[in-house]
Design goal:
17 strands; four-stranded antiparallel sheet; Jelly Rolls; globular; five-stranded antiparallel sheet; single chain; mainly beta
Length: 219
């Protein structure tokens, strides 16, 4: 059972329309300096392709297994290394500074170490770089496992109402989502420990779900 729940992201196995996510392991090495001596550490990379919608992407970063240092070592946007502060449990990839126009294609590459608390970085709001549905019926799917922790989701405002209209977990509707932050309690929904879960969010344009703690369903 997971005992650690940080309120501070969602790769997992995210099915995102018009968006491609590739995970490449064991093909890269990152360099770091200790006392002026440079070392190479075997690492992985995650490649995310999408479109620019005028919003920034937030990433959940974990510690190394030893509890020292953060997992992510570098981030590139369309081949350019970012200047974002990545040494944090959560950080923002500022896409505006890359002189992108709306609907421009973007490719984000996240480099991370081999030994991390979580197996890979996690996107907290991946819907912001997915191509919008012309009908306005946007949906995003997250997949993971139930480790007996609740998922916390920010529900953006759409005027006087909320932007997330419906949430389904393994086909079952989640109740009481019309609030600023709502909880998806898998145990109360009758989902067993380590059972696979598929979460579908349906939302209005510009109201992408923001998952506070995607690590609780990662594996």
């Amino acid at each position: 059972m997971k005992t650690k729940m940080m309120i501070a992201t969602c790769m997992l196995a995210a099915s995102l329309s018009a968006q491609k996510i590739t995970k490449i392991k064991g093909l890269d090495s990152t360099r770091h300096s200790v006392g002026g001596v440079w070392y190479k550490t075997p690492g992985h990379r995650m490649e995310i392709e999408g479109v620019y919608n005028g919003k920034d992407l937030f990433v959940r970063n974990s510690f190394g297994k030893s509890g020292i240092g953060y997992c992510i070592t570098q981030v590139k946007v369309n081949g350019n290394t970012t200047i974002d502060e990545i040494n944090a449990s959560m950080f923002r990839i500022d896409l505006e500074i890359h002189k992108l126009k709306l609907n421009d294609k973007i490719k984000i590459v996240i480099y991370y170490k081999d030994s991390c608390e979580q197996t890979e970085p996690q996107l907290m709001n991946p819907g912001v770089i997915r191509q919008k549905d012309p009908t306005g019926n946007n949906a995003i799917v997250m997949e993971g496992k139930n480790f007996n922790s609740s998922l916390l989701v920010v529900n953006p405002r759409a005027g006087k109402n909320y932007g997330i209209k419906e949430v389904l977990v393994n086909g079952k509707k989640v109740e009481s989502i019309q609030k600023d932050i709502f909880e998806i309690n898998f145990y109360r929904m009758g989902i067993n420990y380590e059972e696979k879960i598929k979460i579908e969010f349906k939302y209005e344009d510009g109201c992408e779900p923001f998952v506070i703690n995607p690590d609780v369903i990662s594996y």
